[in-house]
Amino acid sequence: MLDCAIIGGGPAGLTAGLYATRGGLENVVMFEKGMPGGQITLSSEIENYPGATAHNLSGMDFMMPWLEQCQRFGLRHEMAEVTRVSHTKGGAFVIHTSDGKTQEAKSVIVGTGSTPKKAGFIGEEAYFGRGVSTCATCDGFFYKGKAVAVIGGGDTALEEALYLAKICTNVTLIHRRGSFRASPNTIKRLKATANIELVLNATVDEVFGDEMGVMGIRVTLEDHSTREINVPGVFVFIGNNVNNQVLRQEDGTFLCDMTPTGEVKVNLKMETSLKGLFATGDMRQDAPKQVVCAASDGAVAALQAIAYVDGH
Q1: How far apart are CA 275 and CA 109, in angstroms?
Q2: Catalytic residue among 3, 4, 139, 282
Q3: Residues 6 or more apart from 214 whose CB is under 8 A from it?
Q4: Structural domains of the chain, ranges and CATH numbers in brackets
Q5: 4 given a catalytic annotation
């Protein structure tokens, strides 16, 4: 039986693996069907992780040493797709993989993250990472002193537009409706910010550019006319899909308590409502969706998993 099964090989999972193995757990396996690293490997440059800013590393280069460091302390990487985690009456966890095999574990740390929803306009995929982004905190500084566009109408979109307005000359906020699904105070702040232009009841048709990256965005307005907005950066905030499938049971329920939007409910120790099960990173409630925070979650969860295993 495994001391700890770690589901997901992003910053949270890798950090959990490092702390769990270095902390004394001897049989720890990280399940990740592909190469570890997570969404951050798609970033062209890392500027906001302490210690990495001096080297202008790409996301791939930044994450490359993490697995090697973890494996040095005994973490095993199993390239298998976990389809479900279940729990026995005896208190053990069962890890089900797509090849039909199962493994039992005393504790489980889940860090399968979330996936930003795609808006579906032309050029979104082609220019992702080259002008199209889903993280203002990660990529906003690259557009300091420049104009950008933000797509979305919820709290996240408005808050990110306000964040970008502090470092960019102009922010064009494009929303398909005439009203916002955000808190009244956030909407008030948005409308009071001079360098944010609202383009409402508009549909994004296309992001265009060249081999260097994004050059602008085309939208269809309410009167069916077309407008071209010249910007080098486009930020899409229309929500996230939480990758919580591994926690869904055969009867459709979840293994632990979840929020109405599908995030895992945890306390400050990353503990879920089921003892021995921990959730980290973007999949847990109120996640800041930053690499440094995901790594912190992984460390906290691993320390608690060690205590749990030692106590049982």
Answers
A1: 11
A2: 139
A3: 123, 127, 130, 131, 132, 207, 208, 231, 232, 233, 234
A4: 2-115+241-311 (3.50.50.60), 118-236 (3.50.50.60)
A5: no
Q: What is the DSSP letter of 263?
A: P
Each residue's pLDDT tens digit, 5-60: 999 999 999 999 999 999 999 999 999 998 899 878 867 677 778 887 666 788 88
> Residues 96-117: pLDDT tens digits?
999 999 999 999 999 999 988 8
Using a 10 angstrom Cβ sphere, with 0-12 exposed, 13-18 middle and 19 or more buried, the burial of residue 109 is buried
Tell me the C-alpha distance between 165 and 146, whole Å: 10
- The residue from 3, 4, 70, 135 that is catalytic is 135
Which residues pair with residue 271 across a beta bridge? 278
Q: Which of 3, 4, 70, 138 is catalytic?
A: 138
Is 138 part of the annotated catalytic residue set? Answer: yes
One-letter amino acid of 201: N
Q: Which amino acid is at 266?
A: V
Residue whose structure tokens are 């910053």: 11
| Other Cβ atoms within 10 Å of 161 Cβ, number | 27
CA–CA separation, 24 vs 20, rounded Å?
7
pTM: 0.78
* Residue 164, phi then psi, degrees to nearest 5: -65, -30
Based on the residue annotation, tell me whether 135 is a catalytic residue of this protein: yes
